[in-house]
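RECORD TYPE: inverse folding
INPUT: structure tokens
STRUCTURE:
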């Protein structure tokens, strides 16, 4: 195969798939640079374009700065600053017109500002404007190895589609940032942590979570986070605080399941000297400490009944007393709580006060289990792979086979389990690629993909996996007598023999 095959032969399905992935990636987190970087990576991996680069016009200085690139080092990135009209990128931004340079070595206007192409003899360069309603926000450019027989029209077309998707994403992000900055100015405080760069999710359900978080973060509304263990409740609680209207106040967390009743009470409300044996000094409780900030009541479903009444009072009246204290204290802390328990069922069974439930459940946010949002697996896997290999100073990749296995596992421990698994894999990796054989045993043994979600398999693969399982089971229950097994499966012995060969099942 000719490695410089003409672009026109590019597989239309692969191209569409790449475009969809890019579109999804652009909204996959609140960190716009990260999203753009990943999008450039997809262009490279799926469409063979090298050095995808997004340059954006700074709305204030009008300077053109590289916002994200694939295939450039940090230093090369920092050199990538242009003025409108300067070089190819500057011309594209100034004119709003696409430019194609067949061979950069023959183009005097090509500045090679980033000095990243020492040998520019055989490189083609395409740069398209990122435009929204006539306004040029920047440019999207890519390199391709020069080939006389290659028409660059195809690249131009794809890049123009992607540029328009980027335009929308960038505009959305700028508007968001602008609104946040405005809000801050009005309150006279500067907030740095408005983004949620560590929270990943492309699925519709996580996008919905982001939307609600963005909406309620700046309010004082009481929030109840629901979801199985390891789905990110604590992470979202932090995000609510750091995006919230009181990010300067403290974030005070308490795990209501971790302490026995009397200690929990003392921790929540504090105590005065002499309140009980061992209370040798006054001690403020968490509600006092959280003034001006957020109190996070983790595992709130585990608060014992007697304490539920006291908690209800804080929620209703914002008042409480320290143990052994006579003074009534107040708190203005925003209350965020979380639980993985079925509070509705507990209420019905009389284990959880219904009035408290309604007070806590003002804005419920449900974090779906990972098995219900498998679309998020590839991004999460990549996110953790990147994070842990950066920490380890290595550059570990996943083999396609290992990826498939990770995709079909149901992740009962949700993101926490995935995170721990990825960390272990990176730390234990002997070479640069993690293969299927490196995966933990329970992950390899698992061969019952979640039927509803398809386990990341294609329909054919899933049907085959199921056939294989049923055949093995039938052989087992029929003591390996094939005629009997075939009958129990409702097929002929010949069909069974054929399928056993197909699936490599030994007698
Ligand atoms: N969307 C996400 N993107 C990236 N990391 C995530 C995401 N959700 C969760 N994590 C990570 O997964 C781990 C578990 O999350 P977290 O502790 O928030 O779960 P939890 O719902 O509070 O679980 P539990 O009920 O067991 O306390 C954390 O390390 C967190 O950073
Ligand atoms: Mg938690």
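DESIGNED SEQUENCE:
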């Amino acid at each position: 195969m000719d490695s410089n095959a003409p672009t026109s032969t590019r597989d239309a399905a692969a191209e569409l798939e790449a475009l969809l992935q890019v579109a999804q990636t652009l909204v996959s987190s609140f960190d716009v640079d990260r999203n753009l970087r990943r999008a450039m990576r997809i262009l490279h991996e799926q469409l063979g374009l090298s050095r995808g680069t997004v340059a954006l016009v700074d709305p204030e200085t009008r300077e053109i700065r590289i916002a994200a690139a694939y295939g450039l080092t940090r230093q090369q990135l920092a050199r990538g600053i242009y003025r409108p009209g300067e070089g190819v990128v500057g011309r594209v931004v100034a004119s709003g017109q696409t430019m194609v340079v067949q061979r950069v070595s023959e183009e005097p206007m090509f500045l090679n500002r980033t000095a990243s192409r020492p040998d520019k003899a055989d490189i083609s360069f395409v740069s398209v404007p990122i435009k929204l309603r006539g306004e040029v926000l920047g440019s999207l450019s890519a390199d391709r190895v020069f080939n006389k027989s290659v028409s660059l029209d195809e690249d131009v077309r794809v890049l123009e589609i992607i540029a328009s998707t980027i335009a929308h994403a960038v505009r959305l992000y700028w508007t968001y940032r602008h609104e946040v900055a405005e809000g801050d100015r009005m309150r006279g405080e500067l907030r740095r942590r408005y983004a949620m760069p560590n929270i990943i999710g492309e699925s519709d359900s996580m996008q919905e979570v982001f939307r609600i978080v963005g909406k309620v973060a700046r309010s004082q509304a009481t929030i109840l986070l629901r979801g199985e263990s390891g789905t990110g409740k604590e992470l979202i609680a932090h995000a609510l605080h750091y995006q919230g209207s009181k990010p300067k106040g403290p974030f005070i967390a308490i795990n209501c399941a971790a302490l026995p009743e009397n200690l929990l009470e003392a921790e929540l409300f504090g105590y005065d000297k002499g309140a009980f044996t061992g209370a040798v000094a006054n001690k403020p409780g968490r509600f006092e400490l959280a003034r001006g900030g957020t109190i996070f009541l983790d595992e709130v479903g585990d608060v014992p009944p007697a304490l539920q009444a006291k908690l209800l009072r804080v929620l209703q009246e914002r008042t409480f007393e320290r143990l052994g204290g006579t003074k009534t204290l107040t708190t203005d802390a925003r209350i965020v709580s979380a639980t993985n328990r079925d509070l509705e069922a507990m209420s019905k069974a009389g284990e959880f006060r219904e009035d408290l439930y309604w007070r806590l459940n003002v804005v419920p946010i449900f974090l779906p289990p990972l098995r219900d949002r498998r679309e998020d697996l590839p991004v999460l896997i990549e996110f953790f792979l990147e994070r842990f290999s950066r920490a380890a100073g290595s550059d570990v990749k996943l083999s396609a086979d290992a990826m498939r296995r990770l995709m079909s596992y149901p992740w009962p421990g949700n993101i926490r389990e995935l995170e721990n698994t990825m960390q272990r894999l990176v730390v234990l990796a002997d070479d640069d690629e993690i293969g299927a054989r490196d995966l933990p045993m329970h992950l390899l043994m698992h061969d019952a993909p979640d039927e509803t979600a398809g386990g990341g398999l294609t329909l054919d693969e899933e049907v085959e996996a199921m056939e294989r399982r049923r055949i093995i089971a039938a052989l087992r229950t029929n003591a390996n007598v094939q005629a009997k097994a075939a009958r129990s499966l409702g097929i002929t012995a010949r069909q069974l023999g054929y399928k056993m060969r197909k699936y490599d099942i030994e007698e």
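NOTES: DSSP finds 19 helices and 17 strands in the chain.
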